[in-house]
Amino acid sequence: METRVQISRQRHRHRVPKPTLPRYRAGTTNGGVILGGPKIYAIDDSADAFSQSTFQLNPPQQQGPQVINVGVTTPAKRGLLSLGITTNYVSDSSSRTFIPTSYNPPKSGSFALELAGQAGGLVQLVGQPAALLVAAVQCPSSKTAQTYQFVTIPAALVNPSVVPIPASTWDPTTDTAYGSVDISSDGVNINFNNIHQYTLSSQAPTQQPSSPVTGICAPTVFGSTITLGQLTVKNPIPGGGLSTPPQASVGIGPTGLLVEHNGAGDASSVIFPGTSPGLFYDNTLGAGTGAVGLPKPSGPLDTGALLGTQYLGFIYGAGIFGNASSPTGWSSHLASFGFSSVPSSCAAVAANTGTMIYGGDFPKDDPTASSDGFGNCDLAIDLGMQDTSNNGRFPKATVWMFAGYAANTTGKNYSFPAVAIAGQLKGKNAIFLIGVDSTQPWAIYLLQSN
Description:
1% helix; 8-stranded antiparallel barrel; mainly beta
Protein backbone atom coordinates (compact mmCIF):
# COMPACT_ATOMS: atom_id res chain seq x y z
CA MET A 1 0.00 0.00 0.00
CA GLU A 2 1.25 3.45 -0.88
CA THR A 3 1.53 6.10 1.81
CA ARG A 4 0.74 9.69 0.81
CA VAL A 5 2.61 12.38 2.71
CA GLN A 6 1.67 16.04 2.44
CA ILE A 7 4.68 18.37 2.67
CA SER A 8 3.72 21.47 4.62
CA ARG A 9 4.06 24.82 2.91
CA GLN A 10 6.48 26.71 5.10
CA ARG A 11 9.90 28.26 4.88
CA HIS A 12 12.74 25.85 5.53
CA ARG A 13 16.29 25.07 4.52
CA HIS A 14 17.98 21.83 3.53
CA ARG A 15 21.70 21.77 4.28
CA VAL A 16 24.46 19.40 3.22
CA PRO A 17 27.26 18.94 5.80
CA LYS A 18 30.09 19.52 3.38
CA PRO A 19 29.75 18.34 -0.20
CA THR A 20 28.55 14.83 -0.91
CA LEU A 21 30.46 15.11 -4.17
CA PRO A 22 34.25 15.46 -4.28
CA ARG A 23 36.11 18.46 -5.58
CA TYR A 24 37.73 16.66 -8.51
CA ARG A 25 34.80 14.84 -10.05
CA ALA A 26 33.39 15.75 -13.43
CA GLY A 27 29.98 17.24 -12.89
CA THR A 28 30.99 19.33 -9.90
CA THR A 29 31.62 22.26 -12.19
CA ASN A 30 29.56 25.41 -12.36
CA GLY A 31 29.72 27.15 -15.72
CA GLY A 32 32.99 25.36 -16.47
CA VAL A 33 34.57 26.35 -13.14
CA ILE A 34 35.52 23.48 -10.81
CA LEU A 35 33.46 23.60 -7.63
CA GLY A 36 35.50 23.25 -4.45
CA GLY A 37 34.43 23.35 -0.83
CA PRO A 38 31.09 22.69 0.85
CA LYS A 39 27.70 23.27 -0.75
CA ILE A 40 24.41 24.39 0.78
CA TYR A 41 21.01 23.74 -0.77
CA ALA A 42 17.95 25.70 0.32
CA ILE A 43 14.38 24.87 -0.78
CA ASP A 44 11.71 27.41 0.18
CA ASP A 45 8.26 25.87 -0.26
CA SER A 46 6.40 29.06 0.62
CA ALA A 47 8.09 31.04 -2.14
CA ASP A 48 8.48 28.11 -4.58
CA ALA A 49 12.19 28.88 -4.82
CA PHE A 50 15.56 27.18 -4.30
CA SER A 51 19.24 28.05 -4.21
CA GLN A 52 22.62 26.30 -4.30
CA SER A 53 25.59 27.91 -2.55
CA THR A 54 29.24 27.15 -1.96
CA PHE A 55 31.29 28.02 1.09
CA GLN A 56 34.97 28.77 0.57
CA LEU A 57 37.74 30.69 2.25
CA ASN A 58 39.63 31.56 -0.90
CA PRO A 59 40.41 35.28 -0.99
CA PRO A 60 40.11 37.46 -2.93
CA GLN A 61 37.50 35.66 -5.06
CA GLN A 62 35.37 34.17 -2.29
CA GLN A 63 35.32 34.40 1.47
CA GLY A 64 32.29 32.65 2.94
CA PRO A 65 28.97 31.66 1.34
CA GLN A 66 28.29 32.42 -2.31
CA VAL A 67 25.06 31.64 -4.14
CA ILE A 68 25.85 30.02 -7.49
CA ASN A 69 22.40 28.87 -8.66
CA VAL A 70 18.92 30.19 -7.88
CA GLY A 71 15.58 29.31 -9.35
CA VAL A 72 11.97 28.30 -9.00
CA THR A 73 10.28 25.05 -7.93
CA THR A 74 7.21 23.46 -9.48
CA PRO A 75 5.38 20.43 -7.99
CA ALA A 76 5.31 17.47 -10.37
CA LYS A 77 3.69 14.03 -10.26
CA ARG A 78 4.22 11.66 -7.32
CA GLY A 79 5.84 14.27 -5.03
CA LEU A 80 8.66 15.22 -7.40
CA LEU A 81 9.85 18.84 -7.46
CA SER A 82 10.90 20.25 -10.81
CA LEU A 83 13.59 22.92 -10.42
CA GLY A 84 14.12 25.70 -12.96
CA ILE A 85 17.36 27.70 -12.79
CA THR A 86 16.74 31.43 -13.28
CA THR A 87 20.25 32.73 -12.53
CA ASN A 88 23.67 31.09 -12.52
CA TYR A 89 26.72 32.80 -10.99
CA VAL A 90 30.21 31.89 -12.22
CA SER A 91 33.44 33.17 -10.64
CA ASP A 92 35.63 35.34 -12.84
CA SER A 93 39.32 35.36 -11.95
CA SER A 94 40.10 38.58 -13.81
CA SER A 95 37.43 40.72 -12.15
CA ARG A 96 37.44 38.71 -8.89
CA THR A 97 33.65 38.69 -8.93
CA PHE A 98 30.80 36.30 -9.73
CA ILE A 99 29.24 36.94 -13.14
CA PRO A 100 25.47 36.21 -13.38
CA THR A 101 23.73 34.58 -16.33
CA SER A 102 19.92 34.80 -16.35
CA TYR A 103 17.48 32.35 -17.97
CA ASN A 104 14.00 33.31 -19.12
CA PRO A 105 12.25 30.94 -19.25
CA PRO A 106 14.05 29.09 -16.41
CA LYS A 107 16.58 26.45 -17.43
CA SER A 108 14.90 23.06 -16.97
CA GLY A 109 16.26 19.59 -16.19
CA SER A 110 16.81 19.84 -12.41
CA PHE A 111 14.84 17.87 -9.81
CA ALA A 112 14.49 17.32 -6.08
CA LEU A 113 12.78 14.87 -3.72
CA GLU A 114 11.91 16.01 -0.20
CA LEU A 115 11.54 13.88 2.89
CA ALA A 116 8.46 14.51 5.02
CA GLY A 117 8.84 17.51 7.33
CA GLN A 118 11.57 19.09 5.15
CA ALA A 119 14.17 16.81 6.74
CA GLY A 120 16.34 16.38 3.67
CA GLY A 121 16.16 14.37 0.49
CA LEU A 122 17.81 14.19 -2.92
CA VAL A 123 18.60 16.87 -5.50
CA GLN A 124 20.13 16.96 -8.97
CA LEU A 125 20.88 20.20 -10.79
CA VAL A 126 21.21 20.00 -14.54
CA GLY A 127 24.76 19.04 -15.51
CA GLN A 128 25.68 17.96 -11.98
CA PRO A 129 25.52 14.56 -10.26
CA ALA A 130 22.78 13.82 -7.74
CA ALA A 131 23.45 14.98 -4.16
CA LEU A 132 22.14 13.69 -0.86
CA LEU A 133 20.61 16.33 1.43
CA VAL A 134 20.25 16.26 5.19
CA ALA A 135 18.74 18.99 7.34
CA ALA A 136 21.15 18.88 10.29
CA VAL A 137 18.97 21.12 12.46
CA GLN A 138 20.29 19.86 15.79
CA CYS A 139 23.00 17.68 17.28
CA PRO A 140 22.24 14.09 18.37
CA SER A 141 21.22 14.12 22.04
CA SER A 142 20.42 10.52 22.92
CA LYS A 143 22.73 8.73 25.37
CA THR A 144 21.24 5.47 24.13
CA ALA A 145 23.12 4.26 21.08
CA GLN A 146 21.30 4.16 17.74
CA THR A 147 22.64 1.67 15.21
CA TYR A 148 22.99 2.94 11.65
CA GLN A 149 23.69 0.97 8.50
CA PHE A 150 25.46 2.81 5.70
CA VAL A 151 26.77 2.45 2.16
CA THR A 152 29.71 4.31 0.65
CA ILE A 153 29.08 7.18 -1.76
CA PRO A 154 31.42 5.94 -4.51
CA ALA A 155 34.06 7.90 -6.37
CA ALA A 156 35.39 7.00 -9.80
CA LEU A 157 37.56 3.97 -10.46
CA VAL A 158 41.17 4.72 -11.34
CA ASN A 159 43.36 3.26 -14.04
CA PRO A 160 46.64 2.14 -12.36
CA SER A 161 48.60 3.73 -15.19
CA VAL A 162 47.28 7.19 -14.27
CA VAL A 163 50.04 9.28 -12.65
CA PRO A 164 49.71 11.10 -10.34
CA ILE A 165 46.84 9.19 -8.76
CA PRO A 166 43.74 11.30 -8.00
CA ALA A 167 42.81 11.30 -4.31
CA SER A 168 39.05 10.97 -4.82
CA THR A 169 38.81 7.39 -6.06
CA TRP A 170 37.20 4.15 -4.91
CA ASP A 171 38.66 0.64 -5.17
CA PRO A 172 35.90 -1.94 -4.64
CA THR A 173 38.43 -4.70 -3.89
CA THR A 174 40.01 -2.94 -0.91
CA ASP A 175 37.86 0.02 0.13
CA THR A 176 34.77 0.10 2.32
CA ALA A 177 31.47 -0.45 0.51
CA TYR A 178 29.05 -0.76 3.44
CA GLY A 179 28.93 -1.18 7.19
CA SER A 180 27.30 -0.25 10.49
CA VAL A 181 27.97 1.98 13.49
CA ASP A 182 26.42 2.76 16.88
CA ILE A 183 26.06 6.50 17.53
CA SER A 184 25.34 8.08 20.92
CA SER A 185 25.82 11.46 22.58
CA ASP A 186 27.11 12.71 25.92
CA GLY A 187 26.69 16.41 25.17
CA VAL A 188 28.84 17.98 22.46
CA ASN A 189 30.79 14.72 22.18
CA ILE A 190 29.29 12.24 19.71
CA ASN A 191 30.51 8.67 20.11
CA PHE A 192 30.90 6.28 17.18
CA ASN A 193 31.15 2.71 18.54
CA ASN A 194 31.08 -0.82 17.12
CA ILE A 195 32.18 0.33 13.68
CA HIS A 196 32.08 -2.49 11.12
CA GLN A 197 33.14 -1.99 7.51
CA TYR A 198 33.06 -4.41 4.58
CA THR A 199 34.26 -4.53 1.01
CA LEU A 200 31.75 -5.23 -1.73
CA SER A 201 32.82 -8.82 -2.33
CA SER A 202 33.64 -9.95 1.20
CA GLN A 203 31.76 -10.00 4.48
CA ALA A 204 35.03 -9.89 6.42
CA PRO A 205 35.64 -6.48 8.09
CA THR A 206 38.16 -4.23 6.39
CA GLN A 207 39.68 -0.85 7.21
CA GLN A 208 38.07 -0.88 10.64
CA PRO A 209 39.40 2.08 12.66
CA SER A 210 40.00 1.89 16.39
CA SER A 211 36.79 2.12 18.36
CA PRO A 212 35.37 4.28 19.76
CA VAL A 213 35.79 7.36 17.60
CA THR A 214 34.64 10.61 19.16
CA GLY A 215 33.42 13.60 17.20
CA ILE A 216 32.37 17.11 18.15
CA CYS A 217 28.95 18.48 17.17
CA ALA A 218 28.38 22.23 16.97
CA PRO A 219 26.43 24.78 14.90
CA THR A 220 28.11 25.71 11.61
CA VAL A 221 27.01 27.43 8.43
CA PHE A 222 25.98 23.95 7.24
CA GLY A 223 23.81 23.19 10.29
CA SER A 224 24.63 21.26 13.44
CA THR A 225 27.25 18.92 12.02
CA ILE A 226 29.64 16.42 13.61
CA THR A 227 33.36 16.79 12.89
CA LEU A 228 35.57 13.70 12.95
CA GLY A 229 39.35 13.64 12.79
CA GLN A 230 42.08 15.81 14.27
CA LEU A 231 43.28 18.86 12.40
CA THR A 232 47.11 18.73 12.42
CA VAL A 233 49.62 19.90 9.87
CA LYS A 234 51.62 17.24 8.01
CA ASN A 235 54.96 17.52 6.22
CA PRO A 236 55.23 19.74 3.15
CA ILE A 237 53.88 18.10 0.02
CA PRO A 238 55.90 17.85 -3.22
CA GLY A 239 55.88 21.09 -5.12
CA GLY A 240 55.50 23.26 -2.04
CA GLY A 241 52.74 23.93 0.46
CA LEU A 242 51.42 22.02 3.42
CA SER A 243 49.02 19.12 3.62
CA THR A 244 46.47 18.68 6.38
CA PRO A 245 44.72 15.38 7.07
CA PRO A 246 41.08 15.30 5.98
CA GLN A 247 38.26 15.78 8.45
CA ALA A 248 34.89 14.10 8.02
CA SER A 249 31.62 15.96 8.51
CA VAL A 250 28.45 14.07 9.46
CA GLY A 251 24.90 15.39 9.49
CA ILE A 252 21.95 13.48 10.99
CA GLY A 253 18.48 14.74 10.16
CA PRO A 254 15.39 14.64 12.38
CA THR A 255 14.01 11.61 10.50
CA GLY A 256 17.27 9.69 10.99
CA LEU A 257 18.90 10.17 7.59
CA LEU A 258 22.70 10.21 7.95
CA VAL A 259 25.01 11.84 5.39
CA GLU A 260 28.80 11.88 5.72
CA HIS A 261 31.43 13.66 3.67
CA ASN A 262 34.75 12.01 4.51
CA GLY A 263 37.01 14.86 3.38
CA ALA A 264 38.05 13.14 0.14
CA GLY A 265 40.09 15.51 -1.93
CA ASP A 266 40.26 18.14 0.81
CA ALA A 267 43.82 17.36 1.95
CA SER A 268 45.37 17.19 -1.51
CA SER A 269 44.12 16.60 -5.01
CA VAL A 270 46.56 13.85 -5.97
CA ILE A 271 48.94 11.25 -4.57
CA PHE A 272 52.41 11.92 -5.97
CA PRO A 273 54.71 9.09 -7.14
CA GLY A 274 57.23 8.00 -4.54
CA THR A 275 55.24 9.35 -1.59
CA SER A 276 53.22 7.54 1.06
CA PRO A 277 50.72 10.11 2.32
CA GLY A 278 48.25 7.56 3.67
CA LEU A 279 44.51 7.89 3.21
CA PHE A 280 43.19 11.09 1.69
CA TYR A 281 39.90 10.76 3.50
CA ASP A 282 38.75 10.13 7.06
CA ASN A 283 37.89 6.42 7.20
CA THR A 284 35.55 6.39 10.20
CA LEU A 285 32.63 5.34 7.95
CA GLY A 286 32.53 5.24 4.14
CA ALA A 287 35.29 5.33 1.54
CA GLY A 288 34.84 6.94 -1.87
CA THR A 289 33.61 10.41 -0.97
CA GLY A 290 31.50 9.59 2.09
CA ALA A 291 28.51 7.58 3.18
CA VAL A 292 24.74 7.66 3.47
CA GLY A 293 23.00 5.76 6.26
CA LEU A 294 19.67 4.73 7.73
CA PRO A 295 18.66 3.72 11.26
CA LYS A 296 18.82 -0.05 11.52
CA PRO A 297 15.27 -1.49 11.72
CA SER A 298 14.38 -3.04 15.08
CA GLY A 299 13.13 -6.18 13.35
CA PRO A 300 13.31 -7.86 9.93
CA LEU A 301 11.75 -5.79 7.16
CA ASP A 302 8.71 -7.04 5.31
CA THR A 303 10.42 -7.58 1.96
CA GLY A 304 7.10 -7.96 0.18
CA ALA A 305 5.96 -4.54 1.39
CA LEU A 306 9.33 -3.07 0.42
CA LEU A 307 9.04 -4.47 -3.10
CA GLY A 308 5.41 -3.35 -3.41
CA THR A 309 6.25 0.31 -2.83
CA GLN A 310 6.72 2.94 -5.53
CA TYR A 311 9.93 5.01 -5.45
CA LEU A 312 11.59 8.01 -7.04
CA GLY A 313 15.32 8.64 -6.90
CA PHE A 314 18.54 8.82 -8.86
CA ILE A 315 20.94 6.37 -10.51
CA TYR A 316 24.56 7.55 -10.41
CA GLY A 317 27.48 6.08 -12.33
CA ALA A 318 30.78 7.41 -10.96
CA GLY A 319 32.87 6.82 -14.10
CA ILE A 320 36.59 6.16 -14.30
CA PHE A 321 39.71 8.32 -14.23
CA GLY A 322 41.46 8.26 -17.59
CA ASN A 323 43.83 10.96 -16.34
CA ALA A 324 44.53 12.74 -13.07
CA SER A 325 42.26 15.73 -13.73
CA SER A 326 38.71 14.41 -13.98
CA PRO A 327 36.82 11.15 -14.51
CA THR A 328 35.03 10.27 -17.72
CA GLY A 329 31.87 8.33 -18.38
CA TRP A 330 30.01 9.47 -15.25
CA SER A 331 26.22 9.77 -15.40
CA SER A 332 23.32 10.77 -13.19
CA HIS A 333 19.67 10.16 -14.08
CA LEU A 334 16.32 10.67 -12.39
CA ALA A 335 14.58 7.31 -11.99
CA SER A 336 11.41 5.64 -10.80
CA PHE A 337 11.08 2.11 -9.41
CA GLY A 338 8.10 -0.03 -8.43
CA PHE A 339 5.35 0.43 -11.02
CA SER A 340 1.71 0.57 -9.94
CA SER A 341 1.27 -2.27 -12.45
CA VAL A 342 4.37 -3.95 -13.87
CA PRO A 343 4.69 -3.41 -17.65
CA SER A 344 5.14 -6.52 -19.78
CA SER A 345 8.35 -4.98 -21.15
CA CYS A 346 10.03 -5.56 -17.76
CA ALA A 347 10.37 -9.25 -18.58
CA ALA A 348 13.01 -8.31 -21.17
CA VAL A 349 15.19 -6.83 -18.44
CA ALA A 350 15.20 -9.83 -16.08
CA ALA A 351 12.93 -12.62 -14.95
CA ASN A 352 11.11 -12.00 -11.68
CA THR A 353 12.81 -13.90 -8.88
CA GLY A 354 10.31 -12.92 -6.21
CA THR A 355 12.68 -10.34 -4.72
CA MET A 356 12.76 -8.09 -7.77
CA ILE A 357 11.77 -4.45 -8.17
CA TYR A 358 11.68 -2.96 -11.66
CA GLY A 359 12.32 0.59 -12.78
CA GLY A 360 14.55 2.87 -14.81
CA ASP A 361 15.15 6.35 -16.19
CA PHE A 362 12.70 8.67 -17.93
CA PRO A 363 12.59 9.18 -21.71
CA LYS A 364 14.94 12.09 -22.48
CA ASP A 365 15.22 12.65 -18.69
CA ASP A 366 11.84 14.40 -18.84
CA PRO A 367 9.31 13.16 -16.24
CA THR A 368 6.79 15.83 -17.33
CA ALA A 369 6.26 13.87 -20.54
CA SER A 370 5.08 10.84 -18.54
CA SER A 371 1.31 10.54 -18.24
CA ASP A 372 1.44 8.62 -14.95
CA GLY A 373 4.70 9.84 -13.40
CA PHE A 374 6.52 6.53 -14.04
CA GLY A 375 9.55 6.11 -16.28
CA ASN A 376 11.05 3.37 -18.43
CA CYS A 377 11.50 -0.25 -17.43
CA ASP A 378 15.17 -0.71 -18.27
CA LEU A 379 16.65 -1.66 -14.87
CA ALA A 380 15.84 -4.12 -12.13
CA ILE A 381 17.08 -4.60 -8.58
CA ASP A 382 17.02 -8.11 -7.18
CA LEU A 383 17.40 -7.50 -3.44
CA GLY A 384 17.97 -11.16 -2.68
CA MET A 385 17.70 -12.43 0.88
CA GLN A 386 17.74 -10.11 3.86
CA ASP A 387 20.68 -10.66 6.20
CA THR A 388 19.31 -12.64 9.15
CA SER A 389 21.77 -10.92 11.50
CA ASN A 390 21.34 -7.39 10.15
CA ASN A 391 17.77 -6.21 9.62
CA GLY A 392 17.44 -4.09 6.49
CA ARG A 393 20.69 -5.23 4.90
CA PHE A 394 20.70 -7.09 1.57
CA PRO A 395 24.35 -8.16 0.99
CA LYS A 396 23.72 -10.27 -2.12
CA ALA A 397 21.72 -7.88 -4.26
CA THR A 398 21.97 -7.85 -8.06
CA VAL A 399 21.35 -5.01 -10.49
CA TRP A 400 20.11 -5.91 -13.98
CA MET A 401 20.76 -3.28 -16.64
CA PHE A 402 18.92 -3.34 -19.94
CA ALA A 403 20.65 -2.27 -23.15
CA GLY A 404 18.19 0.61 -23.48
CA TYR A 405 19.23 2.37 -20.26
CA ALA A 406 20.64 5.80 -21.17
CA ALA A 407 23.98 5.29 -19.38
CA ASN A 408 24.57 1.72 -20.55
CA THR A 409 27.61 2.05 -22.81
CA THR A 410 27.94 -1.69 -23.51
CA GLY A 411 24.85 -1.95 -25.72
CA LYS A 412 24.02 -5.26 -24.01
CA ASN A 413 21.85 -6.58 -21.21
CA TYR A 414 23.96 -7.52 -18.21
CA SER A 415 24.00 -7.70 -14.40
CA PHE A 416 26.42 -6.86 -11.60
CA PRO A 417 26.62 -7.53 -7.82
CA ALA A 418 25.59 -4.93 -5.27
CA VAL A 419 24.77 -4.37 -1.60
CA ALA A 420 21.62 -2.54 -0.49
CA ILE A 421 20.34 -1.18 2.79
CA ALA A 422 16.71 -0.35 3.45
CA GLY A 423 14.72 1.22 6.24
CA GLN A 424 12.19 3.88 7.04
CA LEU A 425 12.43 7.65 7.43
CA LYS A 426 9.33 8.98 9.19
CA GLY A 427 7.19 6.13 7.91
CA LYS A 428 8.49 6.21 4.33
CA ASN A 429 10.68 3.51 2.81
CA ALA A 430 14.19 4.23 1.57
CA ILE A 431 16.61 2.00 -0.37
CA PHE A 432 20.28 2.89 -0.92
CA LEU A 433 22.52 0.65 -3.03
CA ILE A 434 26.15 0.44 -4.16
CA GLY A 435 27.60 -1.89 -6.81
CA VAL A 436 30.23 -2.09 -9.51
CA ASP A 437 30.45 -3.56 -12.99
CA SER A 438 33.39 -3.87 -15.38
CA THR A 439 33.18 -0.19 -16.29
CA GLN A 440 32.53 1.82 -13.11
CA PRO A 441 30.86 2.02 -9.68
CA TRP A 442 27.10 2.55 -9.45
CA ALA A 443 24.88 4.00 -6.74
CA ILE A 444 21.07 4.01 -6.56
CA TYR A 445 19.18 6.21 -4.07
CA LEU A 446 15.42 5.66 -3.78
CA LEU A 447 12.78 7.33 -1.59
CA GLN A 448 9.15 6.25 -1.37
CA SER A 449 7.03 8.47 -3.63
CA ASN A 450 3.52 9.82 -3.19
